[in-house]
Amino acid sequence: MTKAEIVAQIAKKTGLDKDAVLTVVEQFMSNVKDSLVEGEAVYLRGFGSFIVKQRATKTARNIKEEKSLIIPAHNIPAFKPAKSFVARVSGDVVVEED
Q1: Cα separation of 61 and 64, whole Å?
Q2: Which contacts of 94-98 are long-range, i.e. CB under 8 A and separated by 24 or more positions?
């Protein structure tokens, strides 16, 4: 599903203008990105968490040229789905807790 499809679907379900929905979706994504850049995780209960994972320094090999190169430690964005989300996608029965 693309961003345009998400916007169209939300606009259809809510009756809001597509331009307004697009602005909200883009602002949401911008806020998530900004939070992750600052090292702050974003938690959405029942959906999942956008987090920053730290990758350690590692050595990679170019077998063709018989060279090694060091990949420095770096951070990458990641998504960790909520347990209820994973269970729903896998088709398991989910009992919601209050």
Answers
A1: 9
A2: none
* pTM of the predicted protein model: 0.76
Contact 84, 96 (CB under 8 A): yes
pLDDT at 95: 60
Exposure pattern of 69-80 as b/e (b: 16+ CB <10 Å)?
eeeeeeeeeeee
Cβ-contact 3, 21 below 8 angstroms: no
First to last CA, the chain: 31
What is the rounded average pLDDT of the residues 39-63? Answer: 94
Three-class SS of residue 19?
helix
